[in-house]
Write a structure and sequence with these properties.
This protein is an alpha/beta fold. The chain has 10 helices and 10 strands. It folds into 2 domains: 122 residues, Periplasmic binding protein-like II (D-Maltodextrin-Binding Protein, domain 2, 3-Layer(aba) Sandwich), CATH 3.40.190; 113 residues, Periplasmic binding protein-like II (D-Maltodextrin-Binding Protein, domain 2, 3-Layer(aba) Sandwich), CATH 3.40.190. Strands 1, 2, 3, 4, 5, 6, 7, 8, 9 and 10 form a 10-stranded mixed beta sheet that branches. Helix 5 runs antiparallel to helix 6. The radius of gyration is 24 Å and the shape is elongated.
C-alpha cells in the first residue's frame, strides 16, 4: 500500500512538472512575433526599443513598419494587419478608433512632442527669429498638410499669424518661402541637415537627436502645439498576446525611459 502511495506521489509530482513545462511553452508561444506600425518620427527610438524588448522576451522578433501616420492609416484601411499601431496624430487615431480598427480599451497616449524650427548648423541664412522666416529668398521645409508634423506646423503658423507682431503677411511670406513639403518628419530633418533648405519645422525630439548638425529657433509655448502620440492594439491583431506585451512594455518604465532618452516627453 505504501509503495502504491509513493508511486502516486511521484506521478502527481511528474504531472505538476509537465504542466509547468507546458505552461512555459504556451506562454512563449503566446508572445510570438510582433508587428508594429510606427510613426516615422520614432525611427531612432525604435532602433533601441527592438533589442531591449526582444531580450526581455526571448524567441520574440519585433518588426517595425515606419512611415508617416497618414500612410500607415491608409495601409490598415487597405487590409494590412499589424498587431500594434503607434500614431503621431490624434486626428488619425480618432478616425481609426471610430472605424473599429482598435481594441478600444487599449487606445492610450504614449508620449508627446513639441514643434520646433531648425536650421543647418552653420546657419548660412542667419535665421535666429520667427520673423527671419518671412525674409525674401528664405528656403523652408515642412510636412505636407496630411502628415502629423505638417498638421501641427500649420496650427503653429496660424497661432503666430494671429499675433499682431506677425500677422497674415508673415504667414503668407512663410508659405511663399516654403520650397518643399515632405511626407514624413524625418524627410524634413534630412533636407535641413543636407543644407537643401535654410530652415524646417520638425519635432523637438528630432532636434535633440541631431544637435550636432542643427541649430534650433525656439517657438514660444503660447504659439506652439503639443503633439500627442498614441498606442493601440489592433482589433484583428494576428498576435493579440504579443500586442499586449509590447504595449505594456512601451507604457512601462523601460519603454518610457527609452522614449525620454530620444527627446520625447511623457503624456500628461
Amino acid at each position: 500500500m505504501e509503495r502504491i502511495y509513493k508511486f502516486s506521489r511521484i506521478l502527481a509530482i511528474l504531472g505538476v512538472f509537465c504542466l509547468l513545462l507546458l505552461s512555459t511553452a504556451v506562454s512563449a508561444d503566446e508572445i510570438g512575433d510582433v508587428t508594429v506600425f510606427v510613426a516615422a518620427s520614432l525611427t531612432g527610438a525604435s532602433e533601441e526599443i527592438k533589442p531591449v524588448f526582444e531580450e526581455a522576451n526571448p524567441g520574440t522578433t519585433v518588426t517595425f513598419n515606419l512611415d508617416g501616420t497618414q500612410a500607415l492609416k491608409t495601409q490598415v484601411e487597405n487590409g494590412a494587419l499589424p498587431d500594434v499601431f503607434i500614431s503621431a496624430s490624434a486626428k488619425y487615431t480618432k478616425e481609426l478608433t471610430q472605424s473599429g480598427y482598435f481594441v478600444n480599451d487599449t487606445v492610450t497616449d504614449l508620449c508627446t512632442n513639441w514643434i520646433t524650427i531648425v536650421t543647418p548648423k552653420d546657419n548660412p541664412a542667419e535665421i535666429t527669429t520667427l520673423a527671419d522666416l518671412a525674409k525674401p529668398g528664405m528656403l523652408i521645409a515642412m510636412g505636407t498638410e496630411e502628415v502629423p508634423v505638417g498638421i501641427n506646423t500649420r496650427k503653429v503658423i496660424d497661432k503666430i499669424a494671429n499675433d499682431s507682431a506677425y500677422g497674415s503677411e508673415w504667414k503668407d511670406a512663410v508659405f511663399a518661402n516654403t520650397a518643399t513639403y515632405e511626407t514624413t518628419e524625418p524627410g524634413v530633418v534630412e533636407k535641413v541637415k543636407l543644407g537643401e533648405v535654410d530652415a524646417g519645422f520638425i519635432y523637438e525630439s528630432s532636434y535633440k537627436a541631431s544637435e550636432e548638425d542643427l541649430n534650433m529657433v525656439t517657438i514660444p509655448e503660447n504659439f506652439n502645439e503639443l503633439q500627442y502620440y498614441s498606442i493601440a492594439t489592433m482589433n484583428l491583431a494576428p498576435n493579440r498576446a504579443g500586442a499586449e506585451a509590447f504595449e505594456n512594455f512601451m507604457l512601462g518604465e523601460e519603454g518610457q525611459k527609452i522614449l525620454a532618452s530620444y527627446g520625447f516627453s511623457p503624456a500628461p
